[in-house]
## 1
Amino acid sequence: MTTPLFHLAFPVHDLAAARQFYGGVMGCAEGRSSDHWIDFDFFGHQLVAHLSPDEAGKRITNPVDGDDVPVPHFGVILDMPAWHALADRLRAAGTRFVIEPHIRFAGQVGEQATLFFYDPSGNALEFKAFADMSQVFAKSFVSHQPRVSS
């Protein structure tokens, strides 16, 4: 059986900016498109940027291990070398990180490398990596309270 592909449709305020960011900065190949949406190959998954300026960029955060994590967000889990290469590429492109690249839950269940940033429409992206991939779904209790940022 083949692994299912993930599909995510999300709002953007400007298709040209989405094309430049996802195609240019992120290196995602472009698939089909129209005047209202663009398909991207996002690490082997289908990401669809839909023109919807009124819905793009809403921001809420939740505290996680000392960081204010944007909700909602999306991204992928990479291996450590690919995560470091992406972090370097984003820094070289002048990306402003919401949460700088670092190790979260250091020495605990679920230890992971993480980084967060916003695309040009204010959609939050997270990229993670685990030194031990068995920790991706490891269970531990994390307490949090949602916060809305202004």
Note: The chain has two domains: 7-51, 60-148.
## 2
Amino acid sequence: MAVISRGFGARRRESTPDLPPGQFLTTDFPVLSAGPTPEVDTAEWEFLIRTETGDEKKWSWDELQALPQETIDTDIHCVTRWSKLGTTWRGVSLDTLFAEVETSYDFTMVHSYGGYTTNLPLEDLLDGKAWIATEFDGEPLEPEHGGPARLLVPHLYFWKSAKWVRGIVMHGDDDPGFWEQNGYHTYGDPWQEQRYW
């Protein structure tokens, strides 16, 4: 069951033409989850990338924090039709994490603490398009918004920015993840309104 935060307020796209079609502008940050918020201790948190050969690159919380951090100013768009403009995040670029990963596969499956998965083409994670975000608006990322760390892929609908991220597994095919198996679009471009199959 999805959980939506109280106090959700929005404006229609007609008054904000830079919104993708079908979206409403909100100044809130609605909370939508498929289940309970997992409790993830940073002392036990780990992020990994696993290739098709079984090779793994792993980072502890401290190791992730020691990598170059970037500030990301971006808009975010949820498939449930809300958009929040001008958000500020801080995190590690996936370009940094994939720098020493060798793979011939073109697709990924992102895994989260709590069992959630979502599929993404590798090209949508590289070239400055995606981050492991640990801060929002200058503060540590709250658990309800995916803390301690979430994937941030702002050019796609926000379900692709998997909360409570713990790893990426390379795939040879664009296999659907949790939401995609339940009717959401396999790609999720908000400007094309790719909400559902």
Note: The chain is about 5% helix and 30% strand.
## 3
Amino acid sequence: MKKTAVFPGSFDPLTLGHTDIIDRGLPLFDEIIIAIGTNSSKEYMFSLEERRKFIEKTYAHEPKVIVDTYQGLTIDYCKKVGSQFILRGLRNPADFEFEKAIAQTNRKMSDIETVFLLTSADTSYISSSIVRDILGNNGDVSMFVPKDVKP
């Protein structure tokens, strides 16, 4: 049976923290679907198409990565695409507490397992919100995002 993981997020924008988790997840799964969640009530810095292109360009060389978009519950999306796993990264204890509650809820509602990977020490401080703040103040984010993310 093919092991498929969904790595959900808004990826606004894709950061080196995200790629750290994706790259380290690749040996664990036959395929990783990077699923860009959309929420009509949320304001994004980058359009859905820009975010998708950032990811597609970054992983153009990797056949095990699929990029898709979805709305609604992540577990419903997982069921739709036949994924048995949700891949999540943990940066700190606060992430763990938040993600644990979601994972336990998802497990109660389905048979989909959440797999957590700890971020590498050199990327654990990076978040999309910090990158957006730097961008909003005309700062250089090149050391925090893949080279294909060109704001």
Note: The chain has a mean pLDDT of 95.
